[in-house]
Amino acid sequence: MTAMPAVQAGGLVKRFGDFRAVDEIDLEVRHGEIFGVLGPNGAGKTTMLKMLATLLPIDGGRAEIFGVDVAAEPHRVRQLIGVTGQYASVDEDLTAAENLWLFGRLQGLRSADARTTARRLLEQFGLGEAAERRISAFSGGMRRRLDLAASLITRPPLIFLDEPTTGLDPRTRGQMWDTIRELVDDGCTVLLTTQYLDEADQLADRVCVIDHGRKVAEGTPDELKTQVGDSTLQLQLAPGADQALARAVVRRVLGEEPVTTPESGRLNVPLDVADRAADVLIALREAAVSIASVSVAKPTLDEVFFALTGHGTAAGPDADGPADADGPADADGPAGAVPGQDTPSLVDTTTERVR
Amino acid sequence: MNTVLAEPTAVRRPRPAPADPAAAVARTRARPGLGDTLAQTLAMAWRALKKMRRNPEQFFDVALQPLLFTAMFAYVFGGAISGDVHSYLPLLIPGIVAQTVLTTCMATGTQLREDMDKGVFDRFRSLPMSRVAPLAGPMVADLVRYLIGASLTYLMGLILGYRPGGGVLGVLGAILLAVLTGWAIAWAFTWIGTVARSARGVQGISMMILFPLTFLSNAFVPSRTMPGWLETFTKVNPVSHLVSASRDLANNGVLTAQVGWTLLTGLVVVVIFMPLSVARYKRHL
């Protein structure tokens, strides 16, 4: 029964002129799983998703949704999928309830059924009170939720989510994650794209990493992360602290060279087990190296990327990523351009995992 | 805490087995039926009407143009063309109606272009819906605009002293003909809307077509005053057919062959431009 994959694609190609936005990607998404497509801006994630969702013609290779050929029978495929785009695809001039009613009508619901479904979905997505408000007055998070609700009207078995949380604040992000999990609990398959390893880690059963239109890795989030170490201890040394001494201590405790980031006095220490952080801190205390701040972070997309491709993501300032263990400390580097600093994956490991 | 840390993401909740997708696949249909297409077109028309109601400035063109142009043309050209304002009105009013309806067609194309650039059209494309409905829906709603434009023109004429000899029925017939023709010709502008890159582009292209078409016709002056070659053109110009048919209906209350020519032109436009528009829409993005 579940032998038939939700998505099966082979040698998928999309060309824009000479540029291959998607270059020979193979993909298999099993029914009932959350599959994450991870990659930086411009990697080809959205393009690939649009091809699978019948929104862009396929230039090469083939794709099937539950065994139905995307290029040959797009109308059938559209009855099996819900698509939530990166930019809210709802009507600005209509109210939330009117939007859902319209989409219900367009998918063959009778007027009364469309109204009931709209009301149920609005309640379910916490938009009950905003039902009669126009979308132009909605916040970003509300729009995304409405957008997602609009994709669920006919309960399609496969949902495409294009960067569902990009631009959302952390709390709304968490809510969106819960909603996505509930979808799968209800028997949906979810294919989502994301720029955040953190998000893929939280949600996805399996992940594929895309770079320059090519698939560079595939596996469970854990498998991906083990390629870069499980977590990173980030140390900000107090002003005037002996950086060389600190490095030596880390080397002695872990047998590994810490990564110095462009920001001065900052050390990133890859940890295979997060517990070793304590050992490092104790050793530093004994060596009288004082520390301004400490955090344990999971590897960032940049670090995973560097491990997989040998270069950083396009978002990084250059290829001089944090995984560049032998790079000299660049004390004059631009502050704030530190990969891993600007991504939301910098979260307190303990609180996050006890959920 | 230690165990939790050592086993990072193993806390995933167990999930029930997903429903069999084969049933959902079996329920799918290869293409939308005629009934679906009709229902979807009406739903899209409902959307367009809602938007019109909420953005009343969309009515400025259909409301202001008849009032302004009728008065302007009547007082400026009336004396020169027909001797006095009053005897110019039977000639002018059907002409203004044709002009108003054509301008409204242009707005149909422009608004479609604007609409298609919005995110919601991504959703329409991803829904299992007829590809003609997103184009035909707004056009059904635009029938309201043609109706307002045509009616207001006749009303303005009446205010200025126009007394149509065709009576109420004749005028209603002329209005109906104008609305139908407008709807048909709007498909050409819808096609321009799907081809052009921007709403401004649609407007530019449409203007280039509209101006010659309305002024190189018998809409405002009798075409026998023009040079021979131009007179020949005005005779084949579809706008002239519409204007002549409307004059016959409104002023004399008679149904002439001009009505047939007008409807035929409309049909030809629909047959050519409806498939072209749908094909362009399918390819878009």
TrEMBL record, chain A:
Membrane-spanning ranges: none
Topology in membrane: Peripheral membrane protein
The ABC transporter domain, residue ranges: 7-237
Composition skew (Low complexity), residue ranges: 330-340
Compartments, record wording: Cell membrane
Molecular function, one GO term: ATP hydrolysis activity
Biological process annotations from GO: daunorubicin transport; doxorubicin transport; response to antibiotic
Region named Disordered: 314-355
A Pfam family matched in the record: ABC_tran
Family recorded in the similarity comment: Belongs to the ABC transporter superfamily. Drug exporter-1 (DrugE1) (TC 3.A.1.105) family.
Name this protein carries in UniProt: Daunorubicin resistance ABC transporter ATP-binding subunit
From TrEMBL, chain B:
Main location, first listed in the record: membrane
Membrane topology per record: Multi-pass membrane protein
InterPro entries: ABC2_TM, ABC2_TM_bact-type, ABC_2_transport, Nod_factor_ABC_transporter
Keywords attached to this entry: Antibiotic resistance, Cell membrane, Membrane, Transmembrane, Transmembrane helix, Transport
Membrane-spanning ranges: 59-81, 87-108, 143-162, 168-192, 204-221, 259-279
Pfam families named in the record: ABC2_membrane
Residue ranges annotated for the ABC transmembrane type-2 domain, each copy included: 57-284
Subcellular location: Cell membrane; Membrane
GO terms assigned for molecular function: ABC-type transporter activity
Sequence segments annotated as region (Disordered): 1-26
The UniProt record lists the keyword Protein transport: no
Family annotation (PROSITE patterns): ABC_TM2
Top-level taxon: Bacteria
Cellular component GO terms held in the UniProt record: ATP-binding cassette (ABC) transporter complex
Single GO BP term: response to antibiotic
Family designation: Belongs to the ABC-2 integral membrane protein family.
Protein name per UniProt: Transport permease protein
The organism's taxonomic lineage, starting at the top: Bacteria, Bacillati, Actinomycetota, Actinomycetes, Frankiales
